[in-house]
């Protein structure tokens, strides 16, 4: 009997997987990543490169797009079972997430994501929203993020339950027909005439994998619309509606306008943050509070809203009292 559970491995023989209609259209590397839970991406690319993965008996490149009824040969893999461990340690977080679901049907699941929870376990984290949802819904054959939210940003997050829904929503995002509205608390008095910021954004990857974004003419075109929700002494609650979907877009555009967001650890202002911390704020004040899009199946217009969490509501109550 082997007592060394850390060394225990799942050793599977050759498997043949048949691509369903729902799975068709995706790259073979992404398909294998979803199917082979806990298998490092480096191993997936290695078996593709060495020709150990076959589609309809032929070798394929990672970017090969799968067709319906394709037969995918998966070679025997030794996968450490411990890759699955993080979920059990986070069961409380998983259970809490169930209460954050604000809409669900057979195509879609919409969450009010808490601040501090990554959308998925990349960048050194082995646990995120998508892993939590898969732990909550072990029977779900398909669960994929439609878009992303920064780890410290709270609010509306769309998750597709069918590949057809994912494709449809990605098309809506590309065509910019999805309306997203965020609430942010920024330093100082936002100028009423500042209704749109058009400033190209360039993403820099630092040595540790951290991403910093700055306004740069070499960057990608980026546009955000702004309006004022409420003014306070030394701060403004604004509504930000991004037209493009760049990394850290709202955070960098507000900083560029001279009004950084409260408790932004990358683009914020220390003095302003200290004042807000003294009033009880302990997280980035950026919340995705509303979204409007066409339902991928019924084509009806859906408008969903997600309430601010208690800590953000409490801060606004204090700021109103000190106007």
What's the SSE pattern?
EEHHEEEEHHEEHEEHEEEEEEHHEEH
- Mean pLDDT across the residues is 86
The major β-sheet equals:
10 strands, mixed
Which structural class do the helices and strands define? alpha+beta
Name the helicity range.
Answer: 10-25%
Number of strands: 18
Instruction: Please give the alpha-carbon distance between the first and last residues.
Output: 70 Å
Strand residues, percent? 25-35%
Total of helices: 9
Overall geometric form: elongated
For the CA atoms, what is the radius of gyration?
A: 22 Å
Indicate the low-confidence ranges by residue numbers. Answer: 1-10, 81-89
How would you describe this structure to a colleague?
The protein has 323 residues and is α+β, with helices and mostly antiparallel strands. Strands 7, 8, 9, 10, 11, 12, 15, 16, 17 and 18 form a ten-stranded mixed β-sheet that branches. Strands 2-5-3-4 form a four-stranded antiparallel β-sheet, with no helix packed on it. 24% of the residues lie in helices and 29% in strands. A hairpin with a 5-residue loop joins strand 13 and strand 14. Helix 4 packs across helix 5.
Give the SSE map:
Layout (H helix, E strand, L loop, with lengths): L8 E4 L2 E4 L9 H8 L5 H9 L4 E2 L2 E2 L11 E4 L2 E4 L5 H4 L1 H8 L2 E4 L3 E6 L15 H8 L7 E2 L8 E7 L2 H12 L4 E9 L8 E3 L2 E5 L5 E5 L7 E10 L2 E8 L6 H8 L13 H9 L7 E9 L6 E5 L4 H12 L2
Parallel strand pairs: 10-17
Antiparallel strand pairs: 1-6, 2-5, 3-4, 3-5, 7-8, 8-10, 9-10, 11-16, 11-17, 12-15, 13-14, 15-16, 17-18
Helix pairs in contact: 4-5
